[in-house]
Amino acid sequence: MIPSWEAGDEEKKEVSTALANLRKKYDVIKLDVNDKEDELQLLEKDMKRAEGEEKALSKDFGGGK
To answer: Least enclosed by CB within 10 Å: which of 1, 14, 23, 35?
Structure first.
């Protein structure tokens, strides 16, 4: 019988653990990215709304761009 350390079992465990840790870090980063993308979309909507209001006010008061 071959000892487990010669068959690479210990290395497999280390690689598996390293991959699991990387996946956890990736998941946290991905959630953060998704949150920031959602926030960006809300800001872009607010900007478009504000631009529309600015144009409407500009027309109301006789100004123009």
So the answer is: 1
Amino acid identity, position 22? L
What pLDDT, in 10s, does the model give residues 17-42? 999 999 999 999 999 999 999 999 99
Which pTM does this prediction carry? Answer: 0.62
Q: Say if residue 5's pLDDT is above 80.
A: no
- Three-state SS string across 8-39, please? CHHHHHHHHHHHHHHHHHHHHHHHHHHHHHHH
Torsion angle of C-alpha atoms 13, 14, 17, 18, degrees rounded to 10: -150
Structure tokens at 4: 């487990």
Structure tokens at 33: 């990215």
